[in-house]
Amino acid sequence: MERYKLIKEVGDGTFGNVWRAISKQTGEVVAIKKMKKKYYSWEECVNLREVKSLRKMNHPNIVKLKEVIRENDILYFVFEYMEFNLYQLMKDRVKLFCEADIRNLCFQVFQGLAYMHQRGYFHRDLKPENLLVTKDIIKIADFGLAREISSQPPYTEYVSTRWYRAPEVLLQSCIYSSKVDMWAMGAIMAELCNLRPLFPGVSEADEIYKICSVIGSPTNESWVDGHYLARDINYQFPQLAGVDLSALIPSASKDAINLIKALCSWDPSKRPTAVEALQHPFFQSYFYVPPSLRPRSSVARTPPSAGTRVLLDQQGVRRSSGALSNSKLTNNLSSQKLNASLSAGVQRKLDMVNEDANKSDKSLKTTKQAKYRPPAKNSPNSLNKGMTVHGVSGAAEKLENMTIGARRQSLGQPHPPGVNWISESGNFLIRPGQEIKSGRTYSRKVAG
């Protein structure tokens, strides 16, 4: 830790404090998480879920773990530094976000989730405070509750902040999946549109009541597993019809409302995967090209003209097979180098570990990543009945690194008074901005 100078404490959580710091050697600003618990061996450190999961992931929308340091039985995580979290951006706003900004933020988070879920992990604690933002880039952070999809249940019932907790978890199910992350994203997306939480319950029972009052109570036909879970804990759903989300979130488009409804489905098997969310019509108004298909010299972010398109199509036919294969090979090699670099960073302070810990770490590196296998349709314990996955690996590889074509107004800057700027395909439209009350009505200090 002598190589870093602590500047300011920027966060205090259940498991650790986060400091903004600067490297004395390079001048780079970093975020250092100091764990509150003491750790007496390296083996204990490298087996932490946060370390194990982040060592296996390297994606532009997942916060990067640069180094792990253990000094005097205190554990430090060194991360790349991000300026804000999403909650800070929302609570200080007076004007609503324009939909272009919401689309950009959600698209990036779904990219990170698609990558994470494909590699066998789900987050379990998605909330605005764990989504970090710098300029127009957003990254998923805090993997302290992350679990492997292939790990065996039972899982703990207490995960995520209550307002973003999936109903199957609220009903104390010990068998759930990555679909809990998709529910959380539906609640976060609605909050981005309205700057108010969608389900602000003050207890588990009140949280379920709030959900029923918004999306309507589940029936035996819409979520039979939920009624079994409720019966097991002697809970009876209130009989509520729900409301029209379009009236509750008037600023959201039809596509946005449709996606929020799909994400906040009672039945986990009816929620889209991250890959399917990326293919939703809400994101189709953008023109984007995966990095593997983007020419290095090209800086244009709008569709080519008709004549240019014909010429590019003719050239693409001749070059497609070779260019695509070379691109995939280059991407694979780059990914291997990045992963090796990431592993090296985490291992930087692990060279004094004893022989047993070395063997454990070696097996951790060489173990083949378990692929996600959805639960069997006929499994009595499955909450994802009827869910089938088609081409997840192939689609995820294409979608996880997509970028949005045209960057809109920076999130850090407020809108001009009285107007919202919306850019679609390079054309700017001006419409009256919707005034809302400053600040937030709901307190976020409830931890249970």
From TrEMBL:
KW Amino-acid biosynthesis (keyword) present: no
Molecular-function GO term, any one: MAP kinase activity
Region entry Disordered, spans: 355-388
Keywords of this entry: ATP-binding, Kinase, Nucleotide-binding, Phosphoprotein, Serine/threonine-protein kinase, Transferase
Bias-annotated ranges (Basic and acidic residues): 355-364
Catalytic activity: L-seryl-[protein] + ATP = O-phospho-L-seryl-[protein] + ADP + H(+); L-threonyl-[protein] + ATP = O-phospho-L-threonyl-[protein] + ADP + H(+)
Residue sites binding ATP per the record: K34
Metal-binding is among the record's keywords: no
Domain Protein kinase: 4-283
Enzyme Commission identifier(s): 2.7.11.22
InterPro entries: Kinase-like_dom_sf, MAPK, Prot_kinase_dom, Protein_kinase_ATP_BS, Ser/Thr_kinase_AS
Family label: Belongs to the protein kinase superfamily. CMGC Ser/Thr protein kinase family. CDC2/CDKX subfamily. Belongs to the protein kinase superfamily. CMGC Ser/Thr protein kinase family. MAP kinase subfamily.
Name used for this protein in its record: cyclin-dependent kinase
Classification of source organism: Eukaryota, Viridiplantae, Streptophyta, Embryophyta, Tracheophyta
